[in-house]
Structure formats: C-alpha cells, structure tokens
Amino acid sequence: MRNPLPTISQFRYWNAPIFTFRPAHSEVHASPSKSGCIDSSDASISPHSQIQVTRGPHVPKVLGLDDIKLDGLKILYRADLNLPVHPSTKEFLDDKRIRSIIPTLQKLESSSVTILAHQSRPGRSDFTNLQRHANRLSQLLGRPVDFVPDICGSSATTAIDSMQPGDVLMLDNVRLHPDENLLKGEIEEQESSDIIQNLESHFDIFVNDAFGAAHRSSPSLTGFTRKLPSVAGGLMKREIDALSIAVENPPRPYVALLGGAKADDSLRVAINLLERNIVDTVAFLGVVGNFMLMADGIDIGKSNADFAKSQVEPFVDETSKMAKNILSNYREKVILPEDLAIELNGSREPLSIQQLPTPHPIYDVGLSTLMGLRPIVMGASCVLWNGPASYFEKQNFAFGTIEVLNMCIETDATTIIGGGHTSALVEARGAANRVTHNSSGGGATLTMLSGGRMPVIEALERSFEASQSILGERGLLV
Description:
Blueprint: E1 74-78, H1 96-100, H2 102-107, E2 112-116, H3 131-141, E3 146-147, H4 154-161, E4 168-170, H5 178-182, H6 187-191, H7 194-199, E5 205-208, H8 219-222, E6 230-232, H9 234-247, E7 254-258, H10 263-275, E8 281-284, H11 286-295, H12 302-310, H13 316-330, E9 334-335, E10 339-344, E11 347-352, E12 362-365, H14 367-378, E13 382-386, H15 399-410, E14 414-417, H16 420-428, E15 437-438, H17 443-449, H18 455-462, H19 464-473
Parallel strand pairs: 1-2, 1-5, 2-4, 3-4, 5-6, 7-8, 7-13, 8-9, 13-14, 14-15
Antiparallel strand pairs: 10-11, 10-12
C-alpha cells in the first residue's frame, strides 16, 4: 500500500493545498426553488441513444522507439507543445508539455531530430511562434535547440539538411501554415499539402509524440504516416498502453471515479465502459454527481441545477437522456452521492440528500459518501479517476477531491488519472509518481476513454505493417 496524503481520520488537522488553477466552478447565486431536477419520465430510452462512439475490444498495435535502432537517423518528431501563456508577456505559465518530451528526446540523442509542433490557433491571443519554446527546451534538455522561423520552405529544408547526429531543430508553429488548419479530411488530401510534399524526403522516420492532439487530424499529425516509416514516441506509447488498460482489458474489479463539471464528457466515458461490461463500479462525483442526482428525480435546488445544466449547453437534453439511461440500465453498478457539502455564510456545512433541495451552492461530496467509497476503491484491482470531486480551489471544499486522490495513492490497484484538471491536481500535490499513470491529455484522453475516434493512433496502426517492412529491409528493427 502506498503512503497516503492526509485522510478522513486526519481531517481536523488538514491544511488546504495552494492551487493556481482557474476555478472550475463559479459562484452560484442561489434562490429557493423546487425545479432543480430532471424529468425522469423518459428513462426507458435505449442507452445507445445519442451516443456515437467506436467500440470493441482492441489494443492499438503500433511501433515504439524500443522497436527501432535509432543511431544516425534523421527524425521528424511531432510534439504537442501547446502551452498556457501570459496574455501580456507571453511567458509560459506551465511548461509541463515541454518537460514531458525530454525523455523521448534523450532517447533520440544519437540521431538528428527536427521538431514540428503547434501553439494555440490562428486568431487567439496565445497564438505565437515557437522561438520561446525552443529556448525553454534547450534549457531543460541541456543542449542547443536551434529555431528556424519557417515550416516547410527553403529555410527549413536547408537547416534540416545541414544537421548532424545529436542536433535538435525546432521548426515554427505548424499552424502558421494554412494547410495545417484547412486539410483535416482524408489522408490523400493531407498528403498533397506543402508540409508533406516539402519535408518527407528529408527524413528517415516520423515519430509522433503529440498525444494531446491524438483525437485530431491534420497534415502534420496524420499526413506523414504513408510517406515515412512511422513510430509512436515514448509519451504516445505510454499513453496508449495505459489508457488501453482502462478501456479494453482492465484487471477486475474495476472502479471508475467520474467527476468534474461537464457531465456529458463523464457520461460518455461511463456509457462506453458500462455497455461493454468492463467496469464493475462507476461513482459519480462533483457537478457530474449533482447532474446524476437530478436525473434520479432529486431536486438539488434551482441555482445548482442551472449551473450543472450550463456546463453541458447546448446538449442538456442529450446529456439528461444519457444520465437516465445509465440509471435505468446499470443502476446496480452506479454510486451516487448520499451526502454533500454546501457553502453557507462562507463556511462548509454538511447536507444529506434527504435535506435537498437547497438554495446554497453545493461544492463538495460529503463524508458518508467518501467513507462508503473508500473500501470499494481499496478493494479494486484497477481505478480510473477523471474529474475533481469538489470545487477544490476553495479551501473549505478541497477535501472531497483530496480524499479521492488519497484513495488512488493508498490502493494497491492500477491507478489511471484521466488528464485535464485531475492530472494537474495530481502534479500540484506532488503525487504523479504515486499513481500508475497520470495522463498528459485533456480532450484526447476523454475521447479515448469514451471510445471515440483517435485519428493519430489509427494512422500509426495503419502504417504498422508497411513501416515494419521498410525498417526491416533497412536493418533498423531491433
């Protein structure tokens, strides 16, 4: 058993953590009402309604860096370096994504590596060139990283051709090129892009480590996989292997802890796991738990209901149907909150479900809910956690989320943290090395967990046999 952070029994001595994240929950301006629930009359609708996901037990088969002899190659390396930046100074607020590619680049140090990456999107204030990214990467890597303000023109290709083994070059923000933003359809269309046409002949292999964008399709993400032998980078391979456990063949019993503010995201994950009968228990927490209480016919108060619905606009009806379908078809596997914590005059106050509705904002799950959940998590063989259990940025309401983190740390189960705010919290608490896998993806992680399409992984899979054959002929397979 891993050593825990402070637990329920130590609550009176618990010191609130310091978080720097933007609050995921705004203040609820409450007014008494009896309308804070969802009509349950339509609970007989098939759980397949409104859900469009790709299902079926399947572990992606892709080449990894351990399969390749890496000495002396010219490598095109696609990374996701999309960082939060200060609106005025453009300085990085968090460089985690740069840090996350360091192990892969260290593994590639006997080859020359040209990096393709993106920062934000055209028209946004944080849409910048990648000069600062190259400088920061150089500091972290401990060796020079050259930058060229070009993507696929003559300046870029000249710099690429002059590289020696051990050199690292960063091309400019690939989304500065119109093809990257416009050609998102068929691979054949992407292959006609100047990005592909001008760069492919300068490299031996394509390494894709951009897991954070793996749910997207564009020339730099998917267009090279029929032109160059294609390999998953270290970060990409770790994400594929860990998340495949969560969605394909987890050790049982398997428990999913689904929270956060956006019920539609969590419910799609739940539907995918429940319909395929690979999960034993699904616990709904946070605003998602409140939404499920509403779907169960419980009036949580108008202001709380309005907030929960606002997080899934304009898909309130579809999300409500998903919630009711889960309760109708899989209730025996579902855990809903049995008590909560509200904010009253600036203080935390406990509230049982029987005391609802409330005009006061619900910011946390209650002690009884957490105590009931603890033995289930402790007895699990696999645990997936995605989404905070509470409004954890508020000192008095971080307890539920921290206690769920404690459970994930203490259990001997395989523990998979599902990206976004949850992964950021795990990092902030210094607990990333105390769980089995802390996903780096946000939307990509949710898409994979919900059974949605992952174009980058699909492209790597399709290239597997051809890439293996070409690399074998060149004597580059291990």
